[in-house]
What we know:
3-stranded mixed sheet
Amino acid sequence: MSIQTLLSKDPELASRPVSAEAPPDKSDIFLQNQIDRNQPEQILTLLEQKSSAAFPAPPDVTAQVKYVPNAMEPYLSPAFYMIPAIDDQSENVIYINQSRNVDILKLFTTLAHEGYPGHLYQTTYFAEKNTEPLRSIFNFSGYVEGWATYAEMCSYYLSPLPKDQAALFQKNGSLTLGLYAAADIGIHYDGWSVPDTVRFFSDYGIKDTDAIQEIYNLILSDPGNYLKYYVGYLEFMELKKKAMKIDGDEFSQKNFHRAVLDVGPAPFDIVSKYAVDR
Length: 278
């Protein structure tokens, strides 16, 4: 279902606030009653519990949430997962940049990306299954970041939001990331200037030139960064579509997730061969 279809059914969907600072409505009551932004480890536990219906059981590990020091906040991403030692996956740490997480929903989906069912889950799951230490030195960022982005998109539906509103936020998040990925190609392949980038985003209703300049600088400093997130996410979605077509009525979300997680980080044609084509 597209964003336009969702809004045509309920035009007020987009105007319902979800931040803690906004006037309370049904969505805010849901979020504030069930999600405490000051207890991120409880949010991780909630995500782990809610993921159990569609994802294989995770390994028995601990997860600690720490905050980025104030002096480093301007230079670090909204959150990041510290990959544990190769010989001890039991203790895991996620860092949160408090200057970047502005509302409860964003914190919830960020912890899904970094924790369950994202990076922490995928990393420790594969470490438990992997019997070839050599694979731990390989880096397939499309798989790793694509999975975490896929997990983030799934997490909107694990939140206490009504289904239609969760779908709207998820599709908006996917669209925004897609625009960043397209701009990444435009800037680094087609040689877009700042005015070119402004025109591109303006076509999609984003007209704040200061914000676009910031986006331009961010993309310019890290070529191809957004592609591993968005293209990787799209690859997982294509794998799911393929699995649904092959399995038909017997398709199971949990079985699909188990199959791609068991293969682990690899080029997507190999993941498809061993997880989906069978």
